[in-house]
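User: Sequence in, structure out. Go.
Assistant: Echoing your sequence, followed by the structure tokens.
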Amino acid sequence: VGLDNLHREVFLARSPELWLKPKEITRLLEDVLHVRRENISKYIDNRKIVAVSPKLPEKETASTATPALTAADAHAPVSVQTPAAAREAPPRKTTASVPWNEAVLERATLSTAAPLPQGRTMLEPAEAPPQEIAQSKHTASIVDFKPQPFEEEPCLVCNLGMPGCAVRKIRGNVEAIATSGDSQYILRLTNEDFDLLSIPVHQSWNEYVRRLKSWLDVNESVPAILLHLEKDGETLRVGENSLLVIEPDWLINVTDMTKVEFCSRKLLLDRFVGSPTNEHMIRGNLVHLLFPDIWKAKRGKELAQRRLELLRKQVGDFIASESSPDQIAQKCDDAIEHISQWVDRRKRATRLRTETFVLSPTLGMKGKIDFLWEEPTKNQIVGIGELKTGRSQGDSPKPGHALQLLSYTMMLLARGEISIDEVHALLLYSGNEMLGNQGNNLHRKLAPTFQTVRNAVNVRNDLVLMELTGASQFETNMNKCRGCKDFNMPCALVALLGDEEDPRPVETTKWLPPHIAIPSERAKAFFQHYASLITAELKAVKAIHANLWRKTPEQRVEQGITFRVESFRNAAPLKTGYCYELKGPNKTDFRVGDAVLVSDERGPSLGRVSLGVIQGTSEDGLQITSNEEIRFAPAWVDPYTNENLTIRLFKGLYRFVSNPTHLHDAIFDGKSPEFGSLPISDKSLVDILSKEELNDLQKKALQWALCAKSYCIVHGPPGSGKTRLIRAIVKAHRLLQKRVLICTGTNRALDEAMKSVLTEEMRKEALRLGDAGAVTDSRVKAVTLEGLIEGIEPLDAKIAAGIDALRNRAVVGITASSLQSGRYEKVLGEFDLVVIDEAAQLTAPATVGCISFGKRFVLIGDHHQLPAVAQSEGLDHDDGTDANGPWSRLSKSLFEILYERAIKNSGREIVLLKDQYRMNDHICSIPGVMFYKGALRPGTRKISDARLAIDVRGLEGLERKVLDPQESVKFVDAPLDDSGGLRTNLTEAQTICRIVRALILCKYGLDRDDALGIICPRRAQVELVRRQLEQLLKEMHRIHTPEGRQILDSVSTVDRFQGSQREMIIVSFGMTDGVVSEHLADERRLNVAMSRARHKLILLGNRRALSDEPLFAKLFESMENELPYEDWYVKAT
């Protein structure tokens, strides 16, 4: 990992004493690397850590030796002081009178009858430490365990007016829960500085701690934050007024907390069962959008016009729900009238903020607050509001709504943005009838108390455990279950699939309708396996979010993750939302369409934040759009992964498993697909084949797609004409009057497939669903839902046209994620065939979610290219395949699973497209031999003989050698070079600049988007190459030209180039030292990088270092044997 000697010493000094799981090693390394050099010595002395109870802060005195524990001491908390955080004060050393492991065990066990959980052992140190360890001169106390400045927050409980705390917060991992002699629970917690603490717990927490203990029985540890710790004699404890937040990095969306009001299983069921758009959602959204206009005193015609504008913007929701504005008109108008009366009776001296996103890593919550009222002159929040379109529960708010508003209030209190004495929290029920009491019947006030806050935190903790375990408590009130029309069947089915123990008096199977079969054992195993993998993936996504508060903004900027804003301005106003231009040196890898989190100077965890989407990038700034107005000075822009994309995998998995069809036999039971006779006449087939100009293997793939009774697989290497094949498959099925669904993993891949389908006769039958704003091709945009209804009036006719398109368009294209959102499920219906392009890039749950919409399916892809992205996996992972079924790791696609199964059998269902129409013969020979067993070949003589169109007669030296058009593949041997920074190679970057300069001088035409691609496996090398190119372009006065912008935009990672191609590809491996990382030695990434090139491929790296890795040794052997010239190898000089 590039540790220098000092940091390596720190790591080696600290790691042997820790109970480390593999993933925790990464966190430790990051922690060590962030230590300031001036504090290195404080860490090196901290070699031995013993378990202690944190002592209260006291006046500093001369420290004394700490005696060893006696047997009597084992029944009481240890009252020695804990080591301080190294960044705050030097650690102490203590005396151990027994061997180290025994001393730690004895001090960690506060009851002689409370050993570590069965199977748990301490990690042996690398070498036995001395038994006698000297005491240091300084004794630190628990007050030294304070967070970094960027994490400073006020104490939430103190802000509620409770007695002051002894210690505000301790963060760490609860390793075990023991009991003392008086049956008091003791938390054993390893804090962030890896000190093992033993903290007593007040008896008021007993019931909750017992539940937490049962969770620990099957898990190694639970991350937790202890808030507002209290005095307990000479030590600290989790007191009656303390708070315990488990898995704080697992931010729960506050709106999810409202779902458990009626039944604790509601959130679990929502994870698997989608909620299609309905008229209640549309009405609520419309009223929310109108509230700012009502607050600004818009009335009469002005408000009616605004209402009509918003109705038009929601036309897609009306179409998806098959509803009309007339169905919501009366209730909507009543709500608007009630809110207007309430507002008219209020002084509107405050400023309104809407849809304000807020997160609290301390409480483990996040969400969007409907309304905030600010005092304009002080910019201080004086009111928090949530708007509900229904009615209150008499004089009280509904419990779920109160919990939601309380949670928002807690987050703002915890962040120090409000004072409990100076803020009003209101729930507005627009469904309440006005009774003439100055509109006061509309709102319900909320006054947070400690007990309600503690209850909210515990509800949040329960939801975390539910999401982690995939199980929740059943409702004991049978009247509720019988009245739950929407969920009694899914509730029972999810319980059966998960093998949950159902304590209800009615047998679980009795809740299933007659037409729903009891799940088979194979179906249950499939469901449980992938549900657990998706949960692990969701946890990994949450961990990525945690970098926003685990690392300082400066650290994230240094890693190339975060953009530092130096100035900003409002750009042109949009019809919906706001647009901003942010200026500053752009060293990130942001791309158009990326979701981001914008924050002020204090950073995302404490500062004000706003969600946005990247609309443009340049070397000196970003352009973003946001649904909310940014009323603060942006300082940082961070990537913000949308966890909903992961959650949707649950829905795809459930949809397939819960609807048994003949496809279950193919997936679960491993049945080889059967093929029937051609359902199309010979004349029609010949007509298609002649018009599409298919080669022999493409013809075979088309026949298999027509004849397969369940599925077939098309293995399509790079450039093998997959989109042409898709067009032929769609055309043939339309001749048979069959409906076809085309699915892909990305918008880019979907648009490529749809472009190929959009022949003149197909345009009236095609529909492209999803985000129309992500579509760049005009032909595809014309067949989006928005494009088809554009210009149709009035509004009802527009909605009717959209519903007709959804029901009757025969060729529908949509991404897998959009399909599994459930938005169009109500009206899409069933398809005769599902075609999944780039299927090897989709997870198995995403794939089965798509094929659940069809009777048959065709998988088209290449498992030798990039796999599905799984944040929860490394490159070196266990396959995890179950011998009894197709159960595998999440990143292994269903395409690859079925492909491997077919190879073991006859392989009849697979068609390999051997002819490719991209790479010339030189380039094709390398991946062809390395990854496709020599089967890959140029499809035509023209493709084979194509060469780079460049005149190199004016060039000399290295530039002339590598750009020689007659020698299409070159390897440039660059020395190892770390002068450009960690994981970079400055020599390689400078060599790229020499090549680009030569291309400019040769007038190659680098302003074209398909001319050049520069691929760097590592993000750090991407940034270094861009900086070097920026300098070159400035020197050549081309930095602000179309050519210059295109050159800078051509540099990216392998992942960004999947599915694209360029005339010339330059690959820079960024060799800092002689270590070839697993990421660098991934054969699929190497295959993608090389196979993007049509006419020229240039590789840069250190040959000697790479040769030690088998993959690159094979690369050099292939180049030596396959290329028809000897000087493919050039020294970087």
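User: And one key feature?
Assistant: DSSP finds 41 helices and 34 strands in the chain.
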